[in-house]
Batch of 2 targets.
Target 1
Amino acid sequence: MRHPDIDAFLAASALALRAATKGAAARAAEVVISRWQAAGKPGVAAERLPVCDWIAPALAAVAPERAALAAAFAAIEGQLRWARRASASIHEQTFWNGHANAVILGPGGLEARDDLWVGVTVMAPGVDYVDHHHAPEEVYLSLSPGEWWNSDMDWTDPGPISAIYNPPGITHAMRSGKEPFLALWYLPL
Ligand SMILES: [Fe+2]
């Protein structure tokens, strides 16, 4: 049994993913959606970072088409364990102070499991998220303005109701502009 707030977030995620994806991204989304039908185990306790203060203004500016997803996310975000990327250095203050990630479902998440990753990234305005790569493919849904890059794609703002797809293993990055950045990510493991 899941908490109803997590169920509501997953239902809103499935609607938004299906509305925003096609092709490989849609296939990846369906794998993640099919896996989360079975609940995982209770996971980690909440932890917050100062950059989380950007979540509320980002949510306040969400596109109408993502308002239900944003509201469902707002209901659970206070339960998440927000953390910096493991590779972040305190000597790079803009990135150190300007980003946080949280796992909603997956290893180290609010719901612990090892067959998928559903998570979220928040960034202050004017932050570049470092280039990174990982074996699983990945679908991002944005809840704010922002740009994505991968080694097959120039910097792209997907717009408020679209999605970004990163094929397995590709090097990719993202960045905020003048507004705070908030995006959800969905990966089959
Ligand atoms: Fe990624």
Target 2
Amino acid sequence: MVCGEELIQPEECICLRCLYKLPRTHNFKYPDNAAERLMAGRIPFERIASFCVYAKKGMLPPLIHQLKYHHHKEVGILLGKIYGEDLQGSDFLKPVDVIVPVPLHPKKEKIRGYNQAEIIARGLSATTSLPLSVGNLIRVVYNPTQTKRTKTQRWENVKHIFHVKNPGEYAQKHLLLVDDVITTGSTMEACATALQGCQGVKISVATLGEVF
Ligand SMILES: [Zn+2]
């Protein structure tokens, strides 16, 4: 899916050479990394980490495009699994109790057929053995694409779009919010706003890509 070379067993989606070249950030090892500084002073997150740099002409955009728009769920599972292997045993992952993918609006999920964040989360869950929670954090407002909006417009757009059905389920839990890409952090902030109603909740974030 990156270089176009034919795969050989046991490769899936991405050849070993490309996998090795993925622009990993390893930023889960570094508290106060760029993503954490981006969110500093906003809603308190425990930790934030991204698997790779999402550079426009880099390796990650075509992979995420295949996952989101061409039904290649297997690439999301694969990258989630590899990231899970990286995170396994780290101080970043140790306190986490449950993985929570950022939900899509049901209407959007129906159109796409799946939630790409949930696919990535499934891969993460497979290699970390952490449980996955789907359906408790929900997106209640259908909002159109964010790509042409400014940072402030994005935030206005997402502020109240998430809701927690049963706050008790996340009480005293450390959640790992999972999404494909983090850009301004406004989606994560909106999720966290909804999650703050859960008593004693702690929130960390893991995404496949970071754009900033
Ligand atoms: Zn390749």
